[in-house]
Amino acid sequence: MKTDKKVLACVDQSHFADTVADYAAWAARRMDAPLEFLHVIDRHPEIGSGEDHSGAIGFDAQEVLLTTLSDKDAARSRDMREQGRLFLNRLRQRAIDAGVAAPDVRQRHGALDETLAEQEEAVRLFVFGRRGASAETTHRDLGRNVERMVRALHKPVLTVTEDFKEPRRVLIAFDGGIVTRRGVELVAGSMLFRGLPIHLLMSGKESRDAPRQLEWAKNTLEAAGFEASTALIPGDAEHMIAKTVKDQDIDVLIMGAYAHSPLRSLLFGSKTSDLLRAATIPTLLLR
User: Fold this and answer.
1) 144 lies in which domain range?
2) Distance, CA of 21 to CA of 32 (rounded, Å)
3) Is position 118 within any domain?
4) Closest to 41 measured CA to CA, from 111, 104, 105
5) Quick check: is 65 in a domain?
6) Torsions phi, psi of 256, nearest 5?
7) pLDDT tens, position by position, 193-246
8) What is the pLDDT of residue 78?
């Protein structure tokens, strides 16, 4: 059934944007949902002119300097808007070529988190690049906005890596908790992964209820028409997920994200971020 809620692809002007566009187009086609590309221009870009404005200057000279700086800021803003317009139109055409009927584009000035919060009510799925322009310049293995944005949102977020590959096999990292149980129900009720085999992996600490919880997940998916398989393997969850992704030739990983507070993650690290750094496949994050 067609939904009015959209797939929102969040893009910046990096070479990762093409992959975001490809996965977003794939998701929009699968769910028969509208697709929109969002490009946010930071209100306060960290751009320096390199000119020396120090020293004591008179009032008239100060007025001239302020006018000159204001004119330069206005020109820079116009240039950024035009670059963004051309960039978005190119991604829009890429999505049309991929089979999306009428993708939309939106460009905003402001803070990314505030813009996404404004849009969330109308969104069914967010699509982010796991890395972006900041990662290209700093060589970070995880973009600086990923954790902050995922924590701020309540809808599923598909974080993608470089190079599009149409998903054929899906892994759910299932822990029996409320988030991953809702994730199973989300998959069962959505067209996004319809027709694809789903593998359920439960690992970590041993639990008496684990077999029953895993059986519930399998039955839920099979009742919705999915081919589902399960594995219950005690041990380090991060290691077992990575091994299963490789052994089962998994194309998309689904897991709960950032269950602990930002302070705890700051002090002890985040398993979600560790998994995102280690995983080489797109990951659907559930909050």
Assistant:
1) 6-44+80-160
2) 16
3) yes
4) 111
5) no
6) -70, 155
7) 999 999 999 987 878 899 999 999 999 999 999 999 999 998 888 888 889 999
8) 78
Cα(280)–Cα(269) distance, rounded to whole angstroms?
20
One-character DSSP codes across 156-225: -EEEE-SS------EEEE--SSHHHHHHHHHHHH-STTTTS-EEEEEEES--TTHHHHHHHHHHHHHHTT
Total-model pTM: 0.82
Q: In a 3-state reduction of DSSP, which class is residue 143?
A: coil
Residues 6+ apart with CB under 8 A from 145: 112, 128, 132, 134
Final residue in a domain of this structure, among 138, 160, 182: 160
Q: For Cα atoms 253, 175, 140, give the angle at the middle one, nearest 5 degrees.
A: 45
User: Is 147 in the same domain as 29?
Assistant: yes
Residues 107 and 211 in one domain: no
Token pair for 239: 């290691």
For the chain, the average pLDDT equals 82
Q: Among 108-117, 120-129, 277-286, name the most confident range.
A: 120-129
Residue with tokens 């694809």: 196
* Residue closest to 202 by CA, chosen among 156, 244, 167: 244
Tokens of 1: 């059934």
Q: How far apart are CA 159 and CA 5, in angstroms?
A: 19
- pLDDT given for residue 266 in this prediction: 37
**Residue whose pair of structure tokens reads 């977003």 in the numeric block:** 24
